[in-house]
Each structure stands twice: as C-alpha cells, then as structure tokens.
Design goal:
The protein has about 130 residues and is an all-alpha fold. The chain contains four helices and no strands. The longest helix has about 40 residues.
Amino acid sequence: MENLDKNELWANLIRVVKGSVTAIIITLILLFIFAILLTYTSLQENIISPVVIVVTAISILIGSSISTLKIKKNGLLNGALVGIIYIVTIYLISSLTGSGFECNINTVIMMVAGIIAGMFGGIIGVNLN
C-alpha cells in the first residue's frame, strides 16, 4: 500500500512539472506573438507589463488545468504548485540570463496572479472529468 502511495505521489509530481513546462511553452508562444504585434503595429510600450502578467496567468491556468486532468484531486494544491514552479523557473532563468532578479510591485502581482491562476486552473482540471 505504501509503495502505491509513493508511485502515485511521484506520478502526480511529474504531472505538475509537465503542467509547468506546458505553461512556459504557452508563454513563449504568446509572448512571441505579442513581440511581433509590438514590432509591426503602433502598440505602445506601456502595455508590456500588463500583457506579460495576463499572458503568465493564462498560461498557468491552461498548464494547471492540463496537469490536474489526470490527478483528479487536490486541484487547489496541485494548481498552486504549477504556478509556483512556473514562477520560480521563470525567475531563475531571468537571473541566469543576466536580466537579474528584480522585486517590485509587478513581480509581486505576477507571483500572486500565477498562484491564483494555478489554483483556478487546478479546480477546472479536476472538475472536467
């Protein structure tokens, strides 16, 4: 019985990580589209920060929904984990690429939005079955 619980826990952790990776891939695609729009249209640069926050939230919502489809329980927790893993990964990549880790109001908003979006996505994913 104990071995089954460890296997299930491990499988759920892998699903959560896959959900985070999915969210990052979705973010990259959406931000690439936004960059093209920003380059070739008259969009103002002051919308960059809100768009990044919205894209992050949408990506995490989708990633956490996908990851909790098969988990079928604890949608809030598993979705929040997707959001946390996503945010930590993005900030580690940002720090390593030389952008540096900057903690300001936008950072806090993105962290909170990411976790909340993950929780909602987790609830959606669990209840789609």
